[in-house]
Amino acid sequence: MEPEDFRKYGHELIDWIADYWEHIDDLPIVPDVAPGDIRAALPERAPEEPEPFSEIISDLDEIVVPGLTQWQSPGWFAFFPGNTSLPAVLGEAVTAALGQQGMMWSTSPVATELENVVVDWFVDLLGLPDGWKTTGRGGGVIQPSASDSTHTALVVARERAARRGPAIRMVAYTSEQAHSSVEKGANLAGFGRIALVPVDGSHAMRPEALRRMIVEDIEAGLIPAVVTSAVGTTGTAAVDPVRLIGELAREYEMWHHVDAAYAGSAMICPEFQKDQDGLELVDSYTFNPHKWLLVGVDCSMFYVADRAPLIDAMSIVPPYLRNEASESGEVIDYRDWHVALGRRFRALKVWFVLRSYGAEGIRAMIREHVRLANELAQRLEADDRFELVTPVSYALVCFRHVTGDEATDALAAVINQSGHSHLTASKLDDRSFIRVSIGQTQTEQRHVDRLWDLIDRAAAPAR
User: Fold this and answer.
1) Number of domains within the chain
2) Do 294 and 441 contact (CB within 8 A), yes or no?
3) First to last CA, the chain
4) Does residue 451 share a domain with residue 419?
5) Is residue 82 part of a domain?
6) From CA 16, how far away is CA 20, in angstroms rounded?
7) Are 319 and 295 in contact (CB under 8 A)?
């Protein structure tokens, strides 16, 4: 493709993207396809001859859009948000065009230093400890996902505890309500035992239960190595007591990791920062800007209070990666901060988004989503057919039908068949409930009103 053709089709694609965003609310959120339908529409073999690019663009409408789950729909209330924005889309386009491989400072100085800057900006924006900046002992790095970040933390914790015994005797602790990535990461890191700590009535980890389990494990000859706290669990966005858990981690020489994948974004609003009190006792922390900060997948920020154990665990330097800048000690080589060697220029889209919206613009969006969630909760509480499972946490509303699982599951099914609203049905303490996560880029009052009208019409009577 020559530059002139690129310019022509690039304009067409930008128009196509703009049209898609303008009309996304008119599209069914869940595609009407069966397994194998999309594959059947594609040729069995790759093309031997080039095809006109206009045909490729037309197949976006013929093949791609009909198979999409519309995560960017303003009626998307399922899981947690995975919101993006048009400035992020443009940032991704430039990232692809530049084709940087930012494994070391020497392979792309701007990819490294821009990342240094944006992760440091978020230290200030989220109220994180100042020592977590790249100018201090710690620092931040952009990873593909919170799962990658948590796995990295668990590997570092394992290596730090290695002087006390083999991994098969090590224990990783986390809440019963923790995300599955914690258990998966501990398995991949080779921990001998993964202990799920009971939760209290608000579904947060119980520190006294954690202490009891630690003592029992020590008496059994095991090694408490790491504990992962959650600031915003997946099920109900519950918040573990970070300070109390951090004090136990210090007492028993454990690594303390905080998973704030969802709720970390809310910390850009100072009124939420009390939920992460005790971060000075934390060794590592992750949150996902690609959930609620408009930057799009993939972008997870991972911070450490002290980068030395991270680099010690991750760094292997063959001769072909040695260079003067790295040897000088004056630069960060992010290849030493995670499993992967190759890495994309992810910081560019974060930079685009922060400059396009400003921190105040992002705060306004998050506060509006929180307001919408609280308003929906008030409607549910005022109706005798429903009960809240937990108080609203950030912008997550969890409720059920008062008559039980059958009515709750039936209501969720009707909503998800509507085409314009989609949410998640789940279980808590073996009882069904419905999660409504408000956080998509284009979600407005009218979309939440539309959801409420559907809930109101479809719900069975209280009897």
Assistant:
1) 3
2) yes
3) 67
4) yes
5) no
6) 6
7) no
Of all residues in the chain, the percent with pLDDT exceeding 70 is 98
DSSP H helices, 341-425, are 347-381, 405-416
How far is the C-alpha of 340 from the C-alpha of 359, rounded, in Å? 30
The CATH number assigned to the domain holding 334 equals 3.40.640.10
Last residue of a domain, one of 316, 344, 372: 344
pLDDT, average across residues 399-428: 96
What local confidence, expressed as pLDDT, does residue 325 receive?
Answer: 62
What per-residue confidence (pLDDT) applies to 340?
Answer: 87
Tell me, yes or no, whether 35 lies in a domain: yes
Q: Could you tell me if 339 and 357 lie in one domain? A: no
Query: What is the sign, positive or negative, of the torsion defined by CA atoms of 75, 232, 280, 154?
Result: negative
Distance, in Å, from the CA atom of 223 to the CA atom of 291, rounded to the nearest integer, reads 35
Distance in angstroms (rounded) separating the CA atoms of residues 341 and 101: 9
Helix, coil or strand: residue 320: helix
Task: Name the helix (H) or strand (E) containing 445.
Answer: helix 445-458
DSSP bridge partners of 387: 400
Residue 304 to residue 352: CA distance in whole angstroms: 25
Rounded Cα distance, 97 and 130, in Å: 34
Helix (H, G, I), strand (E, B) or coil at 437: strand
Residues 157 and 121 in one domain: yes
- For 6-54, the pLDDT digits (tens) are 999 999 999 999 999 999 999 999 999 999 999 999 999 999 999 999 9
CATH number of the domain residue 437 falls in: 3.90.1150.10
* Edge-to-edge strands, sheet with 386-388: 386-388, 396-401, 431-437, 424-428
| Tens digit of each residue's pLDDT (9 = 90 or more) over 89-121 | 999 999 999 999 999 988 999 999 999 999 999
Query: Which residue matches tokens 């989503």?
Result: 369
357 and 339 share a domain?
A: no
Q: What is the pLDDT of residues 272-297, one digit of tens each?
A: 999 999 999 999 999 999 999 999 99
For 52, the domain range is: 3-68
